[in-house]
Design brief:
mainly alpha
Length: 90
């Protein structure tokens, strides 16, 4: 635990200011969890729509993952794949 992190025992009382901060953190986390659930549902709908139009969802997910990668990392990965493929084909 960090040196500046508060330490509480079962008989400790949280000050009014700390209670306010705690409540604020909890409420922010709850809002973010709601947002995350909403975004997750939106993503599910988009993938479902794409599937309905004949696109392969598995491939769409791979394309999204690839596009997020760093270009250098992607090049290195592609080079390794080529190396391994040539090793097992040869």
């Amino acid at each position: 635990m960090a040196d500046d992190a508060p330490s509480f025992q079962s008989d400790d009382v949280i000050s009014g200011a700390a209670q306010g901060r705690l409540k604020s953190f909890i409420e922010r986390i709850e809002r973010l969890e709601e947002d995350k659930a909403a975004v997750s549902e939106d993503l599910k709908e988009v993938y479902s729509e794409a599937k309905g139009e004949g696109f392969d969802v598995k491939i769409l997910r791979k394309v999204v993952r690839i596009r997020k990668q760093d270009k250098a990392k992607m090049s290195e990965e592609e080079a390794l794949i080529e190396l391994y493929m040539s090793a097992i084909e040869g």
